[in-house]
Structures are given as structure tokens and as C-alpha cells.
Amino acid sequence: MSSRKRANTPGRHRHAKRADDRDPVQVTCRLRPLSSNESEACVVAIDDEHVKLVPPAGYILRNGLPPVETTYKFSSVFDETASQRMVFDQTSLDLVQDVIKGKDGLLFTYGVTGSGKTYTMTGTPKNQKDGILPHTLDILFNSLLSRADKCIFVPDGRNGFEVQPEGVAMLERARLALRTPCSKFEFKYRIPDTRAVRGANDDYVYAVFVSYIEIYNNVAYDLLETTPLVERGEKPRPPTGKGLHQDSKGNMYVDKVTEVEVSSTEEAFEQFVKGQERRRVAQTMLNAESSRSHSVFNIRLVMAPLDASGCEPVRDSSLLHVSQLSLVDLAGSERSKRTENTGDRLFESGKINQSLMTLRQCIEKLRENQKTSPDRAGQVPYRDQKLTHLFKNYFEGQGKVRMIVCVNPSVTDYEENVFVMSFAEQAQDVEIVRAVEVNFGNGNLPVSRRRMAQWNNEIESALRGHNDGFPDTQAFSVFFDAPPPFELNGPGDSDSIARLRQHYQSTYRKRQDYGASAEQKVTEFEGAFRSYLCVADTHRRRVEEMEREKAEVETENQRLAAQFRQTKRELTALKQRVSKYELAEQVKSDKEEEFKR
Ligand code: ADP
Ligand code: MG
């Protein structure tokens, strides 16, 4: 530990006066590893909340005095060993949950060029498998209970969305499938984040849209805009700037920005990569440098309540709710003096610094305003720059604002780091009105429409299952009536619940009655069957007996026939003997007669 004195910086301990409905801007400080050729660090993490800025040996201030070691306190501090997931969990996980619950969020990375802003936001340029963006998308898609089919919701051109009739949506889906046969994009060696957060409403369906904007020289460009030229493979023209507009709810948006509907992390990241490619081409054409532009990746979640069927979203655009998470990779915060630019580049870096300068001024003004009464509050100069104008609403209480200060602890960045730290510390003094919970109008309902539809299906298929083996399915479905249409009009709608309860109670009773009568029939049938079996058995035994008797009679018949034949033979023989004797008697009597005579 250094022997130099630890000095407190101004602005600390101010959170004591915080109002209950406000939260400070949460600032996280992340230190990147030193380059392999460096060994001395000017920024060191002390614990989870403190870092110290250590002046390099021999460094002298303009007033000729050596600077003191300074400690800064942040919501959280990550040293070079921190994983991307740890940083995501601390800074962004609850923002994903907020967006699912219908609330907006803004997260930006701030720091000099090379401090790890892009690494933190999206991973390394070559291997964009980690970072806040892919984690955010993974968890978002894992957490949405039900997503609408594509093309049901379409941007209305005024920062809102409309619901399309199913026929139109189907046609559009078919066109989309023809235009983009299959995604060529794949993450190499990516390990997706399989976690999910709670908060998705069971009675809503969701659709996810992304847009990607670059702000360069105070001009906003649409990075997802595909011109017919590019689609035909011709040389692209330099991009044209877009204006900012205010929607009916007072939110700022980039006019006619392309919003692409995506249904997976891969699809969203494909758009991000396309945008980056477009950014690279545009920067070449504009002779610009990426470190001097701000990039804004917007994830917008459109949510629509389910209709009475519990399966389809309502076709009413006025019932849609849209929440947004903006991930902003700011331009390098280095002062123009350091960049030693000339000509155009100096102009550009002056402009970049100007927009970051305006961000600082806005933060400064917000801090000042907090300390004065509302009637004496000064105007915050959001409108001076596109960057601050676009995010004005966040600072005015529309959602959480988070900042990750990325720091390269290299001693060559010491002076810049002094500026970065002081800005970062100021930023967390700004307190923002907490966004109110979105009322989705179905709170306290005993069951969701989707669950109800599921139960209906389960009951119907269970009844159909019972119906197996019964020939008359029509008669069966008449026997069990279809459930009445179910739509709850609010927590107090006891009538609908009573109606439904009545239906299922009567179905249950019918089912019980049916079961009882079926059981009785089975018992009766079994009794009848048993007595039939008894009768059949008696008959069988009788038949057997008769057959036995018949066999005996036949045998007796045969014996008697044989006896008869024998007797007949004996009789014939006797008759022959009698005839013989009669003949002999005749002959004898004839001879005696003759003798007498
Ligand atoms: P910036 O966007 O602020 O200009 P980059 O994100 O491009 O800076 O980071 C500059 C270099 O430092 C890149 O090569 C990046 O991979 C590396 N780097 C930044 N932060 C980290 C980190 N936390 N761990 C490892 N490498 C990092
Ligand atoms: Mg970068």
C-alpha cells in the first residue's frame, strides 16, 4: 500500500439527502489488464467499491507540486481479473429484467480509446461471443414466456408500433422468408447464457426489435439501413444523416430509423455485425475513425395483451406497450489536445469532445439543479448535442441510467484517467426519478388467460381421450358442453370467474353422473354375462350328456342290430329246418297214405 495520503474527492457522502423516489446514476469502474509491455499501473482496485489513482513517479502538477494519491468510490469496481459475466451481472442483469417489466434502461461505456469500452459492451472485435450485448440478448430471449409470430407488430414510423391483421402479417412473413432464406450468421465457440429472469407477463406476447445508430460529428446515421444500391451489389453512397424527433409521449427518437424484428440472439447479433460492417464502410467513405463516434444499439420490446382466447395478441395498437434498452458505446473520451490531430480530424475530435463535453455539462447542471429549488433550476443543455438530446428522457426519469467507466491503468493514461474519474464520480451524484412500475392491467388475477386456455385444451383433450371406443363422438361432445368464452375484465370481475366455475362444476357433475351410470351398466352387464355363462355351461353339460347318451344308444343299437341279425339268421335256419321237417313229414305222410292204399 502506498504511503501517500489518500484524499477524498468532492461530491462524496451526498447520497444522504436522497429522496425516496430517486436513484443515483450507478457507476461501475472496470480496469482492463495492462499491455504485455507495461508493468506499472496508475489505477489500482482497492476493494469492490474503491480504486486509487496513483500518480506516476516524478509526475509534477502545473503548480510545481507532486500530485497526491486519490481514492474514488463507485457502485462497484472490477479489476482486470473480472469476467465479462461478472460485469454483466452487476451492471445489466436488472436492466434486462426492467425492460421485460416494461421499463426503459440506458447503459453507456465511458473511457479513453483502448480502455475496454467495446470489449465490455460486445466482446473482442474478432470474437464477439461475450460482453454485455450477447448476455443481454440471451437472457431476454430466455425470459420471454411467449413471443408473437413475426410481422404481427410493425413500426409505425413515429417511434411506436401497430398491429397488423393476421392475413397481412402472414404475407409479410412469406416475403421475409423469401428475402432472407436462412441466416448465414453463427457465433464461433459461443457458450450461450442459459439463465432467465422473472417478470414476463403470462398474459402478454412479446416481439423484439433492434436498431443500431451511430452518432458522428453530431450527425446520427442509421447503421441498419439497407439501400437498394447495396441490395443490388452496387457501390454504396455515403450514408445520410437522420434527424431527431419527439414522439407523442415525449421520447426522442431517430427519424425513420430501421427497426429489425429478431427472434434470437443470433438474429440480433447478425444485425449488429451488419451494422458494424456498414459503420466500417461509412467511416472509410467519410474518412472517419471509429473511436470518435458513438454507437447506440437499441433493443425494443413490444408487448401486447392476449385476447379472450388466451392464444392471440389483441389487434388493438393502443394496448401495446414498448420498452427499450439502449446500449451505448461512447467515443473515446480523450481530450483533443492529446490526439494531436490537424485539419478535418481535429474538427472531428473537437466535435466528439463537444458531445461528451455536453454530456458532462448536462450531468453538472443536473447536479446543480438537485441542490436548488425547482423554480430556480437551470436548463440542462441536452439539446446542444444529438447524443444528449437522444437520451434526455432517461435523465428526466424515464428509466435507469448506468455507466461503466472503462480504465486503462497504463501510466501513459494517468492524466486522462484523472479527468475520467472526476467525471465518473460527478455522474453518480446525479439522482434520477425512479421509473414507476408499469401497470399491465391484469394484476391480482387468479389465473392468466394463457393458463386458462391451456387448461381448457388439457380438459378437452382429456375428454377426447375418455371418448375412445365410443362410436358416437358427436353425442359425447354434446354430453360435455364446450367451455364458455373466458375473458376477465379486471381483478373485480367475479362474474366471469363464477360463470366459468359453474361451467366446470356442472361438467364435473355430468362427468360424475356419467361415470356412475356407466359403472352401474358395467355391473349389470357383468351380472347378465355371468348368468349367461351359467346357462351356457348348463347347456354345454346337457349337450355333453346327450351326446354321451346318444353314443350309448348307438352302441346299444349296434348291439341290438347285431343280435337282431343273429336272431334273424337263427330264425331263417330254424325256418329252413322246419320247412325241411315239414317236407319230410309230407313225404312220410304221402308214403304212409300210399302204403295204406
Ligand atoms: P475501446 O473500445 O475503449 O477503444 P477496446 O474495447 O477496443 O477499447 O479494447 C482495447 C483492447 O484491450 C482490445 O484489444 C481488447 O481486447 C482489450 N481489452 C479491453 N478490456 C479488456 C479486458 N477487461 N480484458 C482483456 N482484454 C481487454
Ligand atoms: Mg471501441
TrEMBL record:
Keywords on record: ATP-binding, Coiled coil, Cytoplasm, Cytoskeleton, Microtubule, Motor protein, Nucleotide-binding
GO CC annotations, alphabetized: kinesin complex; microtubule; nucleus
GO biological process terms held by the UniProt record: microtubule-based movement; mitotic spindle midzone assembly
Subcellular location: Cytoplasm, Cytoskeleton
MF annotations from Gene Ontology: ATP binding; ATP hydrolysis activity; microtubule binding; microtubule motor activity
Residues covered by region (Disordered): 1-23
SUPFAM superfamilies, per the entry: P-loop containing nucleoside triphosphate hydrolases
PROSITE patterns xref list: KINESIN_MOTOR_1, KINESIN_MOTOR_2
Domain Kinesin motor: residue ranges: 24-430
Residues that bind ATP: G111, V112, T113, G114, S115, G116, K117, T118
Pfam families the record matches: Kinesin
Gene3D superfamilies with a match to the protein in the record: Kinesin motor domain
Coiled coil feature spans: 536-584
Biased amino acid composition, Basic residues: 1-17
Entry's family note: Belongs to the TRAFAC class myosin-kinesin ATPase superfamily. Kinesin family.
PANTHER family: KINESIN-LIKE PROTEIN KIF23 (PTHR24115:SF600), KINESIN-RELATED (PTHR24115)
Name of this chain's protein: Kinesin-like protein
